[in-house]
Here is the input.
Amino acid sequence: MKIKSAEFVVSNSKVEQCPNSALPEYAFIGRSNVGKSSLINMLTDRKSLAKTSAKPGKTQLINHFLINKNWHLVDLPGYGYAQVSKSTKKVFQKFITAYFEKRTQMVCAFVLIDSRHAPQKIDMEFMQWLGEHNVPFCIIFTKADKLKPKVLEKNIHNYQAEMLEIWTQMPEFFITSASTGTGKDEVLDYIEAINQQ
Ligand code: GTP
Ligand code: MG
Here is the structure.
């Protein structure tokens, strides 16, 4: 898919205030600092459409972007960031879960996982929650440029093995780098294929 236009629409903390539109939407979710906003910029060829930061906790709202005038891309706040106060963390969790429970236009969630790390409990629990709530999701392994190809391959292999202890099959997954553009065409073509169904 070619990105012809990418526009910021609105940010808010309430799912009820998200755009009143039936366009299909795709949400990017994962731990703080995993690279959600950077990936969105990479996919859309825009340097700073979504705000990024080396400091975790940058994205704090539900951000809608209109792509090619016919689908929405959604940048969500990260979960599991220990540095924010417990009560703030709870607010994130509440509106993130409310988003997935109520937003029927959401056709696929992309759960971002840092390719450098072994499976983390919080990500496993989050995917379990998505499964229990019948939310379709894929996995995106991020920051692939930070690893040597052999190590990357081993990490993905280990991740799959651990997923298969819980799930009967591995969800669709992609390997990406916001720095080099790896995985861009694969993710965009996947979205395009769903949009054309
Ligand atoms: P929050 O909004 O805080 O939850 O974070 P986020 O998941 O949106 O992460 P963000 O895109 O802001 O990136 C976090 C940090 O990781 C930034 O310093 C990015 O430059 C860096 N980063 C993100 N993706 C990549 C990547 O693919 N490769 C490399 N080398 N760095 C990356
Ligand atoms: Mg962000």
